[in-house]
């Protein structure tokens, strides 16, 4: 089949006295945010090219149709399709969700405490059918405090413009006007007369908080907070003791908070502490005290406490530790639970408020696992919590745990219908030395029968941006590769916070290249230690992890058999220079501001994947994107693919797949998500000749 060709329309670009040619910049439409909402506005020539690329991809993956179906059935076969969550006890009802074998979306259920009569208050599949849409994204589902109203927000394009609906649970009738173009979050007032929500501006940034009175026109909604900086976005939430609303405005590195009492008839948010560049803080209230989770004079965070916010006298409650990330607090009447992260491992601690004694909650003898807690009920006068964990080889288990007696009872275990024996798998945690001597944690999961003599293929997953840590939790889907002798490795590279805030700082701005060097060092370590060999590694990453994939494909193609990029941030210089795009301004502290700062420009230009494509051999590459993605525009992978076709000197596969009705997270629904995983894995099996 003929290889698709995108027409060249050369444009000379200049910035900071640098000049470069971009043959494909013409595909970016000035009304791109309108295109995200309505694909009919897409340039027909571009649409035709995307369709041609899809046909080319389908043609080249035709021999994987059977393995795609097999993978889909395998992955779905590991999911208990008819399943129910554990209940959460409110004051009058117990609430929980369930899924069915036939459905793709969750069902929300409740029953009155003391009653056996179960009531269905939300059915995602029925709602989707009513709307007759292909894409169905649920932003938020909330029940009012009086248990009378259901609030839900929907995105039917994938563009993350959410419409809020509030309806009476009994009558199922809407009780107020729908609210369009919101960020999706719904916060009810305690008297259930109002909701608070954030509105998206013309650049898809939530910078205003409104209060809407139920039953009134949206044009009369009250603006209670507006953020003036285009770099900051806002959100609103209720304190743990349900006495205050907190408004948080922040970018990735700086935050500022305001608060007002839940009883205020006319909310007038009061500033807690003025923003200071690089300083993050988050205040919560509990039992007459205010707790501040902050990195002020504490790089890896600490928690301070004060009696009031009018004239605060902050004192240390949890001190900071070097390269140990101090997490936030969960409150019960007699207990405070918190988390710590160090060396890509999480820990949980519980403090007895009466005695002041704190101890670690240890409930697994595995080296690598992910612990977690959730509350059993809204009433905090309890000693019981849900305590759970999973590991790369052990499916999720949840216990009902009594903090006082230390008794635990297994109440839910993730069922793998097709069967799973954790003893068949080996999990290792090793460290590899990066280019500057820093030790990078690697989580390695393999089948016990996979030989460590360099003969195995290996999938190396990475992300490394925004301080997002990669959690080594259980994934039933990954077993489809691991069971076929493909070792799965997650590299906890800099740019995340697996080793504290410093780990993030060393992987952003003018140190961003450490992210890429850490990943390349990981690949070389795995080759040297016989986990795999050169030209047997498949790189995988999405979004900012796609930036990582683009860079390593340019810098170290010889190490890789193939690269899988999902919604990849590969035209990072162009995006950084365009301040009208939704995320650009808010990410100056992550990647830099190339337009205003020549050092930032030169640095980004030196690694931006699109700008650094070379005449050389590349690995097999599979790229996926979505037409309605507002976080990483489809422009980026489209241009990257077209330019790579011009330059690469090999005959390896280069495939671009565009979802024409999806957003940044890909297809909606359970089956849609499994189909996308099966397609990625089928590509991996094709190039490793394991079909």
Account of the protein in words:
This protein has 691 residues and is of the alpha+beta class. Among the domains are: 13-76 and 420-687, 3-Layer(aba) Sandwich (Rossmann fold); 81-127, no CATH class. It has 13 helices and 39 strands. An eight-stranded mixed β-sheet has the order 32-33-35-34-36-37-38-39, with helices on both faces. Strands 3, 4, 5, 6 and 7 form a five-stranded antiparallel β-sheet that branches. Strand 36, helix 8 and strand 37 (560-566) form a beta-alpha-beta unit. The protein is globular, with a radius of gyration of 25 Å.
Main features:
alpha+beta, Rossmann fold, 8-stranded mixed beta sheet, 5-stranded antiparallel beta sheet, 19% helix
> Can you tell me the CATH superfamily of one domain?
Alpha/Beta hydrolase fold, catalytic domain
* Helicity level: 10-25%
Annotated CATH topology of one domain: Rossmann fold
Count of DSSP helices? 13
User: How does the major sheet shape up?
Assistant: 8 strands, mixed
- Unreliable runs: none
Please outline what is shown here.
This protein is of the alpha+beta class and 691 residues long.
Give the topology:
Blueprint: E1 11-15, E2 18-22, H1 32-37, H2 44-60, H3 65-77, E3 83-84, E4 88-89, E5 93-99, E6 107-112, E7 118-123, H4 124-131, E8 137-143, E9 149-155, E10 162-168, E11 179-182, E12 187-188, E13 194-200, E14 206-213, E15 222-226, E16 233-238, E17 244-250, E18 255-261, E19 270-273, E20 281-286, E21 289-294, E22 302-306, E23 315-318, E24 325-331, E25 335-342, E26 345-352, E27 358-361, E28 370-375, E29 384-390, E30 397-402, E31 408-413, E32 425-433, E33 439-447, E34 457-461, H5 479-482, E35 486-491, H6 501-505, H7 513-528, E36 537-542, H8 544-555, E37 560-566, H9 572-577, H10 588-591, H11 598-607, E38 620-626, H12 635-647, E39 654-659, H13 670-687
Parallel strand pairs: 34-35, 34-36, 36-37, 37-38, 38-39
Antiparallel strand pairs: 1-2, 3-5, 4-5, 5-6, 6-7, 8-9, 9-10, 10-11, 12-13, 13-14, 14-15, 16-17, 17-18, 18-19, 20-21, 21-22, 22-23, 24-25, 25-26, 26-27, 28-29, 29-30, 30-31, 32-33, 33-35
């Amino acid at each position: 089949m003929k290889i698709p060709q995108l027409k060249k329309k050369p444009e000379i670009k200049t910035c900071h006295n640098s000049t470069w040619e971009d043959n494909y910049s013409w595909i970016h439409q000035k009304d791109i945010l309108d295109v995200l909402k309505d694909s009919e506005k897409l340039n027909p020539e571009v649409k035709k090219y995307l369709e041609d690329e899809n046909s080319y991809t389908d043609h080249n993956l035709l021999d994987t149709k059977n393995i795609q179906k097999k993978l889909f059935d395998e992955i779905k076969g590991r999911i208990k399709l008819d399943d129910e969550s554990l209940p959460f006890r409110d004051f009058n009802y117990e609430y929980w969700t369930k899924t069915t074998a036939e459905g793709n979306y969750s069902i929300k259920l409740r029953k009155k405490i003391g009653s056996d009569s179960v009531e269905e208050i939300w059915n995602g599949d029925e709602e989707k059918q009513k709307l007759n849409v292909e894409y169905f994204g649920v932003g938020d589902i909330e029940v009012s405090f009086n248990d009378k109203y259901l609030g839900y927000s929907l995105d039917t394009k994938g563009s993350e413009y959410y419409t809020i609906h509030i309806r009476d649970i009994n009558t199922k009738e809407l009780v107020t006007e729908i609210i369009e173009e919101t960020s999706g979050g719904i916060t009810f007032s305690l008297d259930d007369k109002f909701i608070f929500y954030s509105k998206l501006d013309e650049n898809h940034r939530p910078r205003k908080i409104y209060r809407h009175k139920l039953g009134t026109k949206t044009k009369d909604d009250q603006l209670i907070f507006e953020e003036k900086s285009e770099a900051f976005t806002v959100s609103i939430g209720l304190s743990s003791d349900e006495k205050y609303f907190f408004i948080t405005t922040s970018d990735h590195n700086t935050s500022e908070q305001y608060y007002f009492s839940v009883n205020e008839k006319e909310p007038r948010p009061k500033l807690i502490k003025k923003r200071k560049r690089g300083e993050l803080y988050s205040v919560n209230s509990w039992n007459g005290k205010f707790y501040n989770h902050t990195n002020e004079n504490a790089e890896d965070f600490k928690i301070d406490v004060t009696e009031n916010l009018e004239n605060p006298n902050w004192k240390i409650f949890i001190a900071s530790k070097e390269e140990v990330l101090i997490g936030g607090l969960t409150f019960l009447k007699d207990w405070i639970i918190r988390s710590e992260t160090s060396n890509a491992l999480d820990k949980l601690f519980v403090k007895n408020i009466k005695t002041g004694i704190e101890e670690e909650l240890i409930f697994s003898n595995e080296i690598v696992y992910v612990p977690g807690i959730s509350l059993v009920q809204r009433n905090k006068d309890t000693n019981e919590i849900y305590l759970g964990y999973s590991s790369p080889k052990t499916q999720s288990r949840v216990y009902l745990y009594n903090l006082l007696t230390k008794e635990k009872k297994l109440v839910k275990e993730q069922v793998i219908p097709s069967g799973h024996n954790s003893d068949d798998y080996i999990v290792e945690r090793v460290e590899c030395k990066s280019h500057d001597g820093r030790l990078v944690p690697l989580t390695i999961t393999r089948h016990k029968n996979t030989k460590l003599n360099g003969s195995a293929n290996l999938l190396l997953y990475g992300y490394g941006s925004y301080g997002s840590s990669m959690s080594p939790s259980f994934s039933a889907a990954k077993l489809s590769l691991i069971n076929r002798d493909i070792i799965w490795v997650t590299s906890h590279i800099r740019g995340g916070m697996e080793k504290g805030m410093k780990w993030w700082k060393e992987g952003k701005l003018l140190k961003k290249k450490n992210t890429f060097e850490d990943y390349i060092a990981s690949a070389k370590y795995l080759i040297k230690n016989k986990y795999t060999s050169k030209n047997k590694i498949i790189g995988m990453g999405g979004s900012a992890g796609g930036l990582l994939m683009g860079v390593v494909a340019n810098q170290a193609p010889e190490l890789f058999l193939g690269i899988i990029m999902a919604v990849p941030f590969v035209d990072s210089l162009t995006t950084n220079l365009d301040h009208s795009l939704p995320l650009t301004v808010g990410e100056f502290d992550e990647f830099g501001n190339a337009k205003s700062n020549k050092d930032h420009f030169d640095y980004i230009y030196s690694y931006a994947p699109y700008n650094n494509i070379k005449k050389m051999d590349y690995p097999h590459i599979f790229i996926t994107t979505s037409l309605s993605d507002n976080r990483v525009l489809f422009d980026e992978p489209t241009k990257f693919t077209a330019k790579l076709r011009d330059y690469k000197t090999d005959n390896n596969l280069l495939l671009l797949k565009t979802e024409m009705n999806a957003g940044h997270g890909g297809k909606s629904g359970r089956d849609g998500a499994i189909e996308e995983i099966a397609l990625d894995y089928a590509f991996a099996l094709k190039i490793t000749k394991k079909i």
